[in-house]
């Protein structure tokens, strides 16, 4: 069944492990997410212990399962408010139902969060008339038929959606970046993955993962802040205490780290890049006639561009006067440079504020640039790294030589760490060893350059944004087609679900898509 966009408001929901972004795919301009929600909830610890004691054996007299009450459960703004209280951890258990769980997936928690999300969007589940396109978390890096069926059942039976479609996050993100073939790198909470996509098909057999994620970066960064002498002195000055208690210092350092992660992801952080010699293109997918190559090595060493030579038509006297003026200007420039060099070096620092000391300004030095270090160097010396996982993905034997060359034309990064503006350009420099050292060297089996993708500027509402928003944008692109296709091959209606059950989604997610 195909509907007109005028008759419905298709809802796009991008579920990551830690955040959910949602919005309606309506209007000529593709909108940004209208709701961003942390993908977690909290329950009273007493309720948690009671549920654990019951161990799933509690049943009512008539044989039905005795469902525990959701009284006291918190989500959204209520949870944020509760977490501002002291010692909230002693009374609440925080749960993240969309994170990978080795025991069992928390579908009850997912329903609780999604119900709250729909309420924020003004959708009544009992009378839900909005088609749903769901982009589930890409962690773990698989997309099994059983997972697809479970999400389909969840959409129709828990959310009462009239139509449903599902889209893998790597593919959705690549669509938003203007490509259909490429490498998508996902930075998760505890696990990061690399996906290979060829002609809009996710090559799941090539997917690789590494047990490093944002949580490791957060832990490492807090440890760096604890050991930073400049921050130590700043905190002592701000508190007026020359001997900070270790626990008090940890609390203040955690607040500084949280401020950096939330407020300083733009130009305040410069993630160190590898001194690469390979040619790397920064920008959107290549168009015909475009060859905007970005030389990383030249940027790192700052090689000056030679001044163009011009033919002079002046007389000898005019040339002598011009030469004297140029020499005078050069001497003045040299004097200014010497005076600048004599000044004390400027401090590479930013000013942060924290809740515990709201009226104090605290300087944070160059240590902030090391915020993503574990992703490049591993958890320990010699440990697995993100770029090595990418290397394993692109060298998979199932890829032909042509495919291995083509995928380097579109490298994208998604996940919350992608909010750090300098992270993606730094990451691709670590991938340069997989390329030829010079684009002038001929080779039919090894790529000579790569292209780092960004969201094209023609998406006006996403101009200058970072790529953590790419999966949502890709979902809005697909939603405008999936729910208006007359053949019904890209979505499942409630009639289809009632006839075929959750397995109806298998046709939608087949390779023919």
From TrEMBL:
It comes from the Eukaryota. Pfam families: Actin. GO terms for cellular component: actin cytoskeleton. Belongs to the actin family. PANTHER family: ACTIN. This is RNA polymerase II transcription factor, putative. It comes from Cryptococcus deneoformans (strain JEC21 / ATCC MYA-565) (Cryptococcus neoformans var. neoformans serotype D).
